[in-house]
Each structure stands twice: as structure tokens, then as C-alpha cells.
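Appendix B. Raw example, untouched.
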Amino acid sequence: MKTLWVAFAAVMWTVQVQAEEMKMAVTTSFHNSGLSDVLLPAIRDDLGLEVQLLVVGTGQALRLGAAGDVDAILVHSKTAEEKFLAEGNGTHRREIMYNDFVFIGPKSDIAAVGIATSASDALQKIAASEQTFVSRGDDSGTHKKELSLWRGAGLNAETFGDWYRAVGAGMGAALNTAAGMNAYVMSDRASWLNFGNKGDLALLYAGDPVLFNQYAYIPVNPEKHGHVQHDLAMQLEGWLVSDRAKELIDGYQINGETLFVFNAVQ
């Protein structure tokens, strides 16, 4: 009888551990970087927590959070995140890590982006030469940033001709399209480094401070959506700002290049 009870208790413990699951909406750039493949197993080992990812653009991630369809979001568009909080959809915003945006294009570089003096200059060169530019066009954090950079360069993407191709897709798909068309594209550095189908493309311009790309974690507000698993979301936040997460994030490299820099205030 004792043996049966021990076996039953073990089964119940396994069920209980397996029941610790939460949903988090994340950007395609975070997923495409490969970092999620490093972090999720460590979260499972350390917390006994299964994090189910919904991989979407920042705009869609914010909408999922506002609807209470996920327990937390990890995104990279500060203005949109602050609006999300102001509308009562999240409890707070916690910065976790950053990387940067880069301009990718054909090695022939007809637009001369490689000698640009700033991000604005790079975009002005592309527009002036009307070389094919692939935009994500999906309301993601990357897309929002791209549009703001065009505006900062004194240009309006809505007025562009056929050389401007909005694909309405994630970062990987946009990079694939750019590779197939031998076109220019803006990417986060992590997705570019982890991208396997580079074709004749190369990283042509980076380094302007305006290309800084901050990722932040926001738990969904349980006062607005009582069913969300706020306790689990807070457990995950505690892990994401821990020394363990710092070690994994800072240590994640491809071909010797660091993809993200941990900058959470612990």
C-alpha cells in the first residue's frame, strides 16, 4: 500500500510540475535570434516553468496582451509599450537587454550605404537611388522603428514608389525576401547574425546611437484580466533579471559576436 501511495504521489507531483505553464508573446526578432532556444530550457530547469511563446511582431504582441490572451509580453518599442501601460494593460515595464539595428544590403552597394555618415544618411542614399528596400510592414517594433527613422531622415515611406516593398511579415521572412531580391533591409543585429540564407547580402551600416534597440518585459495586468497567471509572470521576471539570465544573455554568441547585452536593473 505504501508503494502504491508513493507512486501516486510521484504522479501527482509530475502533474503539478507540468501544470506550471504560462504564455508570453515575444517579437519575431527575439525568437529568430536563437536566444529563446537558450533561455527556455534554463527557465524550465530553474523554475519548473514551461513558457509557451507566441511569436509575433510587437504590435500584435501588445494586442494579445491587451486582450488578456497571454500572461506577459517581451517587446521592443518603448513608445508603444508606454501607451500599453497608460491604458492599464500591463502592471509595469522592466528593461531586460538590448542590441542594435543594422542596415543590410547587397555587397555591390549601389546606394553607397556603406559610406553613410548616419542612419538618416543611409536611408536618404537608398531613397535617392531608389534601390529596392524591403520593409517588414507588419506593425512590429522593427517596423515602427524603421518608419520613425524615415521620418527622422525627412522622408515619408507612404510616398515611396515600387522600390519600397512592404512584405507584412516577420524578420526572418523579410531577410529572406531581401536575399532573394538582392535588396536593402533593416534588421536587428541578432536576427541578421543568426540568419542562414545571406546570399549576396552584407552588413553595410551600424553604429548610430539612434539604432539602439531595447527589449522590455511587461506582465499583463491581472486587475483587467483576472485569469492571467500573474504570479508565474512575476516568477519569470525575477529569473529574467537574475545573474543566471545575465550569464546566458551576455554569453550568447554567433561566430564570436555577442547578440544581446543584459542591462536589467537587479
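End of appendix B.
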